[in-house]
């Protein structure tokens, strides 16, 4: 099994490659929240969005089947808490006009000041929220 540093480097390189290919081949920034939001709005208009989302789901399911130990919940949180947290993140991506993939991966790579500010805001608010949640609920 790969060590954690090699896994992180490999994952980062693959994310960068995928984001670059999306921009080169499709002319679009790989902002997951924007892709999902656009797909929900008009499914027939952009079928590539559905294919992209399906690819993410199939990739996750395949990895789960091949490496189930990578999906062990080590947070100690229930599935319900994790689902609520995911919904809150989804709401935040709408409020922040994007997510960490669009702003953090693609926007910063394009030297966008707006994306740098958005990513810094995401990280600071995320740390504060986790700290507050753990203080109130325990963790």
Automatic annotation (TrEMBL):
Topology with respect to the bilayer: Multi-pass membrane protein
Major location category of this protein: membrane
Write down the InterPro entries for this protein, in alphabetical order.
Sulf_transp_TsuA/YedE
The record's Pfam families line, in alphabetical order, gives: Sulf_transp
Membrane-spanning parts = 47-66, 78-96, 116-137
Q: Which GO terms describe its cellular component?
A: plasma membrane
**Key words, A-Z:** Cell inner membrane, Cell membrane, Membrane, Transmembrane, Transmembrane helix, Transport
Q: Where in the cell is it found?
A: Cell inner membrane
Give the family this protein belongs to, as stated in its UniProt record.
Belongs to the TsuA/YedE (TC 9.B.102) family.
Report the protein name in the record: YeeE/YedE family protein
